[in-house]
Design brief:
Elements: H1 20-27, E1 45-47, E2 53-56, H2 57-72, E3 76-78, H3 87-99, E4 103-105, H4 114-130
Parallel strand pairs: 3-4
Antiparallel strand pairs: 1-2
Helix pairs in contact: 2-3
Length: 131
């Protein structure tokens, strides 16, 4: 595939200098009804072959999480890890899971990222020392 533009070019995705591609992508709502500015630095757009926006990344991941939990047959779901520091994703997944009847567990006292992992590793180390 021949690239006819600088592949590493920095472009604006929001604001008055928004790149024309992002102007088009953010103007049209996806299948979930989302449109508007890019909200997160990893926001992705899924396009069908005809060029229409099928979904934004967060809608797709949220739907996949609910589908997977149903398929596995869970009734309780723990949302953890750095992925769930992404508030846009978390705010889509939690209501979708609740609407589907799942009980949801979230972090309250320990961060869901490496800080929580380090605390868990320390707890295992302490328990192994006392054995």
């Amino acid at each position: 595939m021949a690239v006819t533009f600088p592949l590493t070019e920095k472009i604006d995705v929001n604001g008055p200098q928004r790149h024309p591609l992002y102007a088009a992508l953010t103007a049209a709502p996806d299948a979930g009804g989302d449109a508007g500015d890019v909200q997160w630095n990893s926001e992705k757009f899924l396009l069908i072959p005809e060029g229409a926006i099928a979904a934004r990344f967060h809608n797709t991941v949220s739907e996949a999480i609910v589908h997977t939990c149903r398929t596995i047959g869970l009734d309780r779901v723990c949302l953890s890890g750095g992925t769930f520091q992404n508030m846009k994703l978390l705010h889509r997944v939690v209501p979708a899971l609740r609407a589907a009847g799942f009980t949801i567990y979230l972090h309250e006292r320990v961060p869901p990222n490496d800080g929580g992992l380090a605390l868990g590793q320390a707890a295992v180390a302490v328990s192994m020392k006392t054995l």
